[in-house]
């Protein structure tokens, strides 16, 4: 192919690669590709490309690399750090994987699924279930996020405690590299010690090193036997003690351990049709789920006996165990509705931090002390995947407060909470990534040696800086 230096000709060549039905150039139809999920970032682009296969992706990337045109890989565009939309230059093309959504192979004996990167997460879960297997990654955006996006952000979600992050659910990858070559690593092997594990480079890279086009995912036995409980505790320290006890006595059958504080429950009761599960108000709650593929495992009585022991030790003070799937779904609604409800409360500053599990109570105590002193009447909410040490910590403006005054303090609040996190050996981004939103934090909290190595890898793999330019680094 002859590479033109005329931008209009390059655009025409890119359109020719995918064919008439598979691009958008009318800017009035681009909005959902240019604006991020939170509506915080609005970019510009001359062209949205929707390739049908890896060869088309390779041809697009080869041309863009020769012409030094930036590419923004895009999945379901549900990312929360601004990584999935182009910048404002109007020079970057978006490559949406939405039409590469075929499941290529499901092997129930090998417990693997091979698929294209544009498959929607909920459809992947269903396909696994249809053959009596389970793909355990689960998050609130699962109806629209894609596997390629999940792997590129190393998504977490509700079942990390038992199955790990997205990164831990992958055996093989096919990636189109920034020079257009295709790295074919679609291996279905659980053991493969043949040098550097190159796929790890692209997992969590947020599209800055290449475009993931296919993957081999790990499947698991389908857990249909479940026991769900909401447990109340009087102090924060008891939450992590209860988790440790449950892990020990359940044979590590615990799949979820989600924390919510009293402020979260009060808001849910006030803003939704959900009711308080207990007749009394408690300060701390954990939503607990045990699961197993063994139908003969009596998880309900196992949970009852662990909770009884927790009452005796003074760790738990009240609990309900769901006696039906409907009741379990009702308990889960508390946690699943929470983020959406909180976002209607006004201006806020949100943190997605992780801390060693044993230090989570210390983090919440110190962060809340700081917020109460620094922002009197500010409203604090702490919840999240405490089983993975991942806390979503929100500070909202005071009711009837001055929003501008509150937001003016944002930088100081962020610095203080991130400092508390760092002093407890935590991470400023547990599961949402870096994107555009957390670039400053990366510079400040990651060591110089690590940043230098990241830059060197980027320069080696993508010397023309065409892959998601300006994101992460
Ligand atoms: C309601 C809601 C709840 C959420 N809950 C969680 C949660 O519990 N846990 C969690 O971890 N995240 C959560 N998220 C964030 C988000 O859903 C995840 O980050 C998800 O993995 C992103 O997938 P996506 O397909 O939408 O990717 P996008 O948003 O399209 O892209 C995300 C990043 O990946 C890159 N990318 C996308 N596809 C590819 C590809 N094929 N190759 C290379 N790079 C690619 C993009 O360039 C971008 O940098 C939530 C988001 C919402 C809106």
Q: What descriptors fit this protein?
A:
473 residues; alpha+beta; Uridine Diphospho-n-acetylenolpyruvylglucosamine Reductase, domain 2; Uridine Diphospho-n-acetylenolpyruvylglucosamine Reductase, domain 3; Alpha-Beta Plaits; 4 domains; 18 strands
Provide a compact summary of the structure:
The chain is an alpha+beta fold and 473 residues long.
Instruction: Quickly name the level 1 CATH class of the largest domain.
Output: Alpha Beta
Counted by DSSP, the helix tally is 16
Q: What gross morphology would you assign?
A: globular
User: Beta-strand percentage?
Assistant: 15-25%
Q: Which parts are unreliable, with pLDDT below 50 for 5 consecutive residues or more? A: none
Structural notes for this entry:
- By secondary structure, the protein is α+β, with helices and mostly antiparallel strands.
- The chain has 4 domains: 7-98, Uridine Diphospho-n-acetylenolpyruvylglucosamine Reductase, domain 2, CATH 3.30.43.10; 103-221, 2-Layer Sandwich (Uridine Diphospho-n-acetylenolpyruvylglucosamine Reductase, domain 3), CATH 3.30.465.10; 225-342, Alpha-Beta Plaits (2-Layer Sandwich); 348-432, 2-Layer Sandwich (Alpha-Beta Plaits).
- The protein has 16 helices and 18 strands.
- The protein has helices spanning 7-18, 31-34, 54-66, 121-130, 147-153, 160-163, 199-202, 236-249, 262-271, 299-312, 325-342, 360-374, 403-408, 410-423, 439-445, 448-461, and strands at 23-24, 48-49, 71-74, 93-96, 103-107, 112-116, 133-134, 170-176, 182-185, 211-218, 220-221, 225-233, 254-261, 284-292, 318-321, 348-354, 379-384, 390-396.
- The strands form 4 sheets. The chain has a 7-stranded antiparallel beta sheet with strand order 15-12-14-13-17-18-16, with helices on both faces. It has a 5-stranded antiparallel beta sheet with strand order 5-6-10-8-9. Strands 1-2-4-3 form a 4-stranded mixed beta sheet.
- Helix 1 packs antiparallel against helix 3, helix 8 (236-249) packs antiparallel against helix 12 and helix 12 (360-374) packs antiparallel against helix 14.
- The two termini are 32 Å apart.
- The mean pLDDT is 95.
- Flavin-adenine dinucleotide binds next to strand 3, helix 5 and strand 10.
């Amino acid at each position: 192919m002859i590479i033109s230096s005329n931008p209009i000709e390059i655009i025409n060549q890119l359109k020719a690669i995918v064919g008439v039905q598979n691009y958008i150039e009318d800017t009035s139809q681009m909005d959902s590709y240019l604006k991020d999920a939170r509506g915080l970032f609005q970019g510009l682009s001359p062209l949205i490309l929707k390739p049908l296969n890896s060869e088309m992706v390779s041809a697009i990337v080869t041309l863009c690399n020769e012409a030094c045109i930036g590419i923004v890989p895009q999945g379901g565009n549900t990312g929360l750090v601004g990584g999935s939309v182009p910048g404002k230059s109007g020079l970057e093309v978006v490559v949406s994987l939405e039409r590469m959504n075929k499941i290529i192979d499901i092997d129930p004996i090998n417990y693997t699924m091979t698929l294209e990167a544009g498959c929607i997460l909920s459809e992947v879960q269903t396909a696994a279930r249809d053959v009596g297997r389970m793909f355990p990654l689960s998050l609130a955006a699962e109806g629209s996020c894609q596997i390629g996006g999940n792997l590129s952000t190393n998504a977490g979600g509700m079942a990390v405690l038992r199955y790990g992050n997205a990164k831990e659910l992958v055996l093989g990858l096919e990636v189109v590299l920034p020079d257009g070559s295709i790295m074919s690593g679609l291996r279905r092997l659980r053991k493969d010690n043949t040098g550097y594990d190159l796929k790890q480079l692209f997992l969590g890279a947020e599209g800055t090193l290449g475009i993931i086009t296919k993957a081999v995912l790990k499947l698991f036995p389908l857990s249909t036997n479940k026991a769900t409980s909401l447990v109340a505790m009087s102090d924060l320290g008891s939450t992590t003690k209860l988790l440790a006890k449950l892990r020990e006595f359940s044979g590590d059958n615990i799949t979820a351990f989600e924390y919510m504080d009293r402020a979260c429950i009060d808001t849910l009761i006030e803003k939704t049709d959900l009711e308080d599960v207990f007749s009394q108000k408690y300060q701390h709650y954990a939503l607990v789920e045990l699961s197993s593929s063994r139908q003969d495992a009596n998880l309900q009585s196992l949970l009852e006996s662990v909770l009884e022991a927790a009452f005796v030790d003074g760790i738990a003070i009240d609990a309900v165990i769901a006696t039906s799937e409907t009741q379990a779904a009702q308990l889960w609604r508390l946690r699943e509705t929470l983020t959406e409800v909180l976002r209607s409360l006004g201006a806020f500053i949100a943190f997605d931090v992780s801390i060693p599990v044993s230090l989570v109570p210390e983090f919440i105590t110190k962060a809340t002390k700081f917020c109460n002193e620094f922002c009197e009447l500010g409203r604090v909410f702490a919840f999240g995947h405490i089983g993975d040490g991942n806390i979503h910590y929100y500070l909202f403006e005071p009711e009837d407060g001055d929003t501008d005054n509150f937001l003016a303090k944002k930088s100081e609040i962020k610095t203080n909470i991130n400092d508390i996190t760092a002093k407890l050996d935590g991470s400023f981004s547990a599961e949402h990534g870096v994107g555009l939103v957390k670039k400053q934090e990366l510079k400040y909290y990651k060591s110089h040696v690590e940043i230098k190595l990241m830059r060197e890898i980027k320069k080696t793999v993508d010397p023309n800086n065409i892959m998601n330019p300006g994101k992460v680094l």
